[in-house]
């Protein structure tokens, strides 16, 4: 009885949304599948699952076949605009399946499937409106990104090659995917929302994924659309600030002591980004017009992404060579600086793991991560010089220069704090 009640409720929910959709469309077709029909389909699935379990396993497959055949025959010889479409055909079979899942005590699966159906049926008009707004450029950009990620990436070998195992083709192509992905997500957000809102949302998302890729993407865009350099500079500043916060959160999950000691240095390094983003936002508000929106261009520049990926491969090889040249304790600071030019996360997580294994001192680990962050900021400044417009270049250069200065202050403060306990320990001995 409980299974029948639950099945009826889930079927009624699907049918209610379906019936509301048809009535909202003011359809003249009165024989559509609505709340009653979907409720009955779900009850049919639950009852058929019960009979199959108690008497004959063939009952449920036969019910599926009959419901499917009914939906097909309902369209036979009927005008396309007055008969249920493919959505009704699929929804009928899924509703029968939901009733069966309830009887099998698969309640979580039944609820999730019902929720997905309700959302997809309820979003019929917004989805149609969205797809009607597609342009040839949208399709071309989507196909290019699918080719980069879904076609090429699986074919690239995932193994270390060369001296010191310093070259991994998959890691290099992943950087191409990452840079293209940030540009693609930004393009989608700018098409869904206003272009200016899309820039802001992309900077937030880009900072959580890769602030370096975000900097490169917006630097290239600023050269194509120099009139909105303030917007792109604001996006770079936000992404760099979000990157520091994201790294602190990750390190907190691994080593709270390490993240606590990085809180002050990273806090200092975040101040220029926050201040710069606020200033750039104020500048663009001062000259903003209703029709003044950043241009929406092709977000995928594979040539630029491949060039940066090759630079990434070279620096990664140098990092591997540095790791093989000596002990980690002796060469950690130079290694952290070189590694920070490519990936701040990798060297920071490696240092956190080494600290947990007590291979290095805490003060040295903190200084190495700060140095890696300084190197990463220097790289982003260099990217804006090479790929950005003059308006973006000087704005980001100022922010990155002050960020590096704040990082050096944090580096010195950490060194001073580390020296004090050491001297006290010597005096005590």
What is the succession of H and E elements?
HHHHHHHHHHHHHHHHH
Let me know the number of strands. 0
SS content category: mainly alpha
Low-confidence stretches: 290-299, 418-429
Average pLDDT level: 76
Roughly what percent helix? over 70%
Shape: elongated
β-strand percent reads under 5%
Q: For the report, how would you describe the main beta sheet?
A: none
* Number of alpha- plus pi-helical segments: 17
Radius of gyration: 29 Å
- Number of domains as seen in the coordinates: 2
Terminal Cα span: 78 Å
Secondary structure topology:
Layout: H1 2-24, H2 35-54, H3 59-75, H4 86-103, H5 107-122, H6 124-132, H7 136-152, H8 169-192, H9 195-209, H10 211-224, H11 229-254, H12 256-286, H13 302-325, H14 328-340, H15 344-356, H16 362-387, H17 390-428
Tell me what you see in this structure:
The protein has two domains: 2-130, no CATH class; 138-428, no CATH class. The chain has helices spanning 2-24, 35-54, 59-75, 86-103, 107-122, 124-132, 136-152, 169-192, 195-209, 211-224, 229-254, 256-286, 302-325, 328-340, 344-356, 362-387, 390-428. Residues 290-299 and 418-429 have low confidence and may be disordered. Helix 8 packs across helix 13 and helix 11 runs antiparallel to helix 12 (256-286). It is elongated and about 75 Å long. With 429 residues, the chain is mainly alpha-helical.
Summarize the structure.
The protein is mainly alpha-helical and 429 residues long.
Record keyword descriptors for this entry.
17 helices, mainly alpha, disordered C terminus, 429 residues, elongated
């Amino acid at each position: 009885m409980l299974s029948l009640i639950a099945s009826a409720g889930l079927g009624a929910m699907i049918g209610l949304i379906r019936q509301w959709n048809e009535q909202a469309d003011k359809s003249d077709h009165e024989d559509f599948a609505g709340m009653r029909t979907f409720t009955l389909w779900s009850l049919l699935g639950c009852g058929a699952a019960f009979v199959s379990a108690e008497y004959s396993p063939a009952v449920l497959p036969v019910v599926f076949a009959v419901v499917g055949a009914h939906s097909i025959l309902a369209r036979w010889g009927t005008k396309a605009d007055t008969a249920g479409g493919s959505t009704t055909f699929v929804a009928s079979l899924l509703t029968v399946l939901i009733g069966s899942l309830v009887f099998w005590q698969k309640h979580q699966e039944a609820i999730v499937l019902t929720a997905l159906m309700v959302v997809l049926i309820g979003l019929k008009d917004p989805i149609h409106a969205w797809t009607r707004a597609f342009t040839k450029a949208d399709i071309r950009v989507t196909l290019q990104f699918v080719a980069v990620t879904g076609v090429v990436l699986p074919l690239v070998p995932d193994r270390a090659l060369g001296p010191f195992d310093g070259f991994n083709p998959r890691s290099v192509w992943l950087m191409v995917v990452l840079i293209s992905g940030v540009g693609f997500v930004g393009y989608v957000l700018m098409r869904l929302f206003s272009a200016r809102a899309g820039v802001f949302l992309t900077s937030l998302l880009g900072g959580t994924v890769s602030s370096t890729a975000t900097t490169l993407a917006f630097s290239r865009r600023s050269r194509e659309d120099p009139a909105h350099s303030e917007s792109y500079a604001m996006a770079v500043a936000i992404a760099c600030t979000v990157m520091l916060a994201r790294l602190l959160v990750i390190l907190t999950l691994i080593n709270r002591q390490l993240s606590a000691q990085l809180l002050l240095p990273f806090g200092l390094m975040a101040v220029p980004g926050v201040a710069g983003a606020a200033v750039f936002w104020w500048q663009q508000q001062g000259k903003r017009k209703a029709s003044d929106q950043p241009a929406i261009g092709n977000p995928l520049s594979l040539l630029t992404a491949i060039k940066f990926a090759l630079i990434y491969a070279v620096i990664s090889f140098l990092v591997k060579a540095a790791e093989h040249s000596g002990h980690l304790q002796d060469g950690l600071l130079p290694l952290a600086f070189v590694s920070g030019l490519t990936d701040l996360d990798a060297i920071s997580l490696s240092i956190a793991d080494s600290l947990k294994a007590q291979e290095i001192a805490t003060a040295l680990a903190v200084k190495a991560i700060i140095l890696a962050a300084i190197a990463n900021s220097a790289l982003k400044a260099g990217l804006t010089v090479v790929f950005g417009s003059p308006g973006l270049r000087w704005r980001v250069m100022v922010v990155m220069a002050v960020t590096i200065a704040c990082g050096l202050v944090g580096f010195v403060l950490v060194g001073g704090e580390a020296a004090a306990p050491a001297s006290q320990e010597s005096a005590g001995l």
